[in-house]
Amino acid sequence: MLTAGGIVLAIGALYLGREIFVPFALAILLSFVLTPLVNWLRRWKVPRIAAVLIAVSLAFIVVAGIALVVGRQLVQLATNLPNYQTTITEKIHSLQSSAPGGGVVDAVTTTMQDLGREISGEEKKSEPASSGLGAGTGTREPVTVRLEPPQPRPLELIRSVIGPLLAPLATSGLVVIFVIFVLLEREDLRDRFIKLAGAGDLQKSTQALNDAASRVSRYLLMQLVVNLTYGIPIGVALYFVGVPNAILWGLLAAVLRFIPYLGPFLAAIFPVALAIAVDPGWTMLFWVVGLFLTAELISNNVIEPWLYGSSTGLSSLAIIIAAIFWTMLWGPVGLFLATPLTVCVVVIGRYVPQLEFLGVLLGSDPVLAPEEQLYQRLLAGNLEEAVEFAENYVDECSSRELYDNVGIPALRLAENDRQRSSVDTNYRRLVADTAISIVREVDDHVREKASVEEGNHLTQQPCVLCLAGRTELDHAASEMLAQVLQERNIGAKVLPPIVVSRGALEQLDLQGVDVVCLSYFHPQPQVYARYVFRRLRRRAPQVKFVVCCWNLIAGMEQAEELKRQMAADAAFASLQACTEQVEAWIGRAAARGDAPQVTAEVERAQHTALRSLGLDASKRQALDEASRKVAQAFNVPIALVSLVDDTHPTAPDRLPQEVQAGLQGNHEGSLDAHVIAADDMLVSEDVTEDPRFADDPRVLERGIRFYAGVPLRASSGHVVGCLCVIDTQPREFANRDRHRLQEMANQLMVDIQSHQSDH
What we know:
Elements: H1 2-16, H2 18-43, H3 48-80, H4 85-98, H5 103-120, H6 154-184, H7 186-198, H8 202-241, H9 246-256, H10 262-278, H11 283-308, H12 316-330, H13 332-351, H14 356-362, H15 370-380, H16 383-396, H17 399-419, H18 425-453, E1 464-468, H19 472-487, E2 492-495, H20 502-505, E3 515-520, H21 526-539, E4 544-549, H22 556-565, E5 570-572, H23 575-592, H24 600-613, H25 617-634, E6 638-643, H26 657-663, H27 670-678, E7 682-684, H28 697-700, E8 706-713, E9 719-727, H29 735-758
Parallel strand pairs: 1-2, 1-3, 3-4, 4-5
Antiparallel strand pairs: 6-9, 7-8, 8-9
C-alpha cells in the first residue's frame, strides 16, 4: 500500500508540476548529449564554465540553424500552396467523372447539404402566393445582419500574436538555464542523488545511476544515428522525385521518428499530400508511398537491429504504454520523452526491491530462466510449446548445449521439487514423459538438418549403455545423454530404472558394450552406483563405468572422491565432460578390439565351482606358499593368485607394505579380470604400451609395467581364478616361460583338488 500510494503521489506531482518538470526532464536529456562534448573540452584544459557555455552555445546554434531552415521551408510552402489548388480541383473532378456512376458523388453531396440545413433549422426560399393574399403580396426574405468586431488595438494585436509564443519561449529559456546548471553541477547533483536514493548502499545506487546513464546515452546516440540514416535518404529521394521542400520533409522525418511507432506515419502524411497536390497524375504519389515503405522496412529490419538492438531494455508493449502515459501526463513533449524516461523507471526497478515489478512488467529481459521456461512447459504437459522452444534453441546452439544448459537443469528442478514433496508422482511422471518426447522430437529435427546438410546420418551398433539409476527423471536424462552420443556417431542404448534391480541386473546383456553410463538425480547416489558397478565389473572387466551425478556441482576433487566411493572409472556432472571422455574411450576401444566379457550364467558356474573347492585356512596358506615359489621361479617381485569370488589375492610378504596394501582387494582389477573373462593366457611385456591397459588408472597407478597371467581351471572346466606374475619394469616373456607358467597353474589346481579329495 505504501508503494502504491507513493506511485500515485509521484504521478500527481508530475502532472501538477509539469511546467517545472518538463523543462527539467528536457535539460537532463540534453545533458546526456552534451556531457561528452564538455568532457572533451575539459581534457583540452578548458575551464568548466567556458566548456559548458561553449557546448550549450554550439547546441543552440545547431537548433537555431535547423529552425531557420525549417522556417524558410515553411514560408516557401505557404507561398506555393495557392498554386496547388488548381491541381487538386482537377483531380477531384477527374475522380468524379471517371468513377462508375459519376453523378453519385454529386447526389450524395447535395443530400448531405440538405440534411444539414434541416437539422440547423433553415428553410428553403418560399414561392410567391398565388391566391388568398392578393397580387403583389408574399413573404419577404429576412434581412441578413452581420456583426463585425471593432478593429483591434495595437496592444491587443501584439498580445494575440506574441501570447501563444510566450509559453514555448519560457520553456526553452528554462531548458537552457537547467542545462547550464546541470552541466556545471553534474558531480554535485550525482552525489546528492546517491545520498538521497542510496539509503546507505553506495554500491547499488551507483550501479543504478551508471546503468541508467549508459542506457539513456546509448539510446539517444543510436536513435540519432538511426533517425539520420532514415531522414537524410528520404530528403534526398524526395528531392529527386520532385516533391517540393524536400529538405523540410527529410528533417521532419528524422525528428518525428523519435516518437515511437506513430512518428514515421506522421512524417509521411505531408509528402504524400503534396504529391497529390503537385503532380497532375498519380506517379509521384506511388513513388512517395513506396519510398517511405522501403525506408521503414530497411530501418526496422537492418539498421535498427544492427545499431540500436535492444539497448533500451524495454519491451515493445512497454514502449507503447509509456508513449500513451507520458503523452497524457505532459502532452506532446511527453511523447518525445517517453522512451528515455521509461528506461530510467525500469532501471530504478532493477535496484529498488519495492519497484521491482516495474522492471518485470516493462523490461525486455526474460523473467524466467530458460530451464524454468522449459520446466513450466513440462509441468503443464505442453509438448508443442516445449518442442518449439527446444528446436529454436538447437537451431541457435546445439543439442548438447540444450540438454546441458536447459534440459538437465529443468529435470533438476523437478527432482528438487520431488525432494521437497511439492510435486506428486503423477506430475513427476508427466515431466519425465514429456521430456523424453522432447528428446525424440529434437532427435528427428537434428536428423532432418543433418540429412539436408550432409545427405546421410551414420549410425553404429550400441557400444554405450545408458542406464537410469532410480526414477523416471534419471531415464529422461539418460535419453538426453544417448542422443548426444548418437550425434557423435557413437551407438547408445537406453534402459529404464528396472534393469538395475538385483534380479534384472544379472540378466543384463553386456555383449558389445564398451561404456556403461549410470544417471542419477539423487543427491547421494554413492551406495546405489557402487552396488551396480561392483556386480557388473566382474562380468565385464574391460567395460568403463561412468556415473553422472546431475544434481551435484562437482569440482575436480569432488569428482575424484565420488569416483572412488562408487568404484567408477569416472564421475561427471555435465554432458560435455561425459561425452568427451566417452568419445576418447570409444576411440581407444576401437583400436584394441572388443574386450572379453562374462555372461551371468558363466559367472554363476564359476562361483559354484569355486565353492566346491572349499578353500579353508590351510588351503589359503598353500596358495600363499605357491605364489612365493612362482615369484622365485620367474625372478619377479610379485606373484598373485586371484579368485573369482570376493576373497583377497595373496601377496608375497617380502613386498613393501604400501605395495601389498595396493594389491590387496584388487581381485577386480582389469588385468586379472581380463584373464578370467577371456579364459586364456594374457602377457603384456610393457603395460604402458599396451592399448588395452594404457589408460587404465587401476593398472598405471600401482606402477605395474609387466604382467603375465594364466587362468586357473577347476576339474569341471570352469575358471575359478588366475595365477599371474608382475614386475615393475618391462621384460621379455619367451614361449618357454609361458608354458612353464601354465604348467605351474595346472599343478596348483591339481594340488588343491587332490587336497579336497583327501578330505
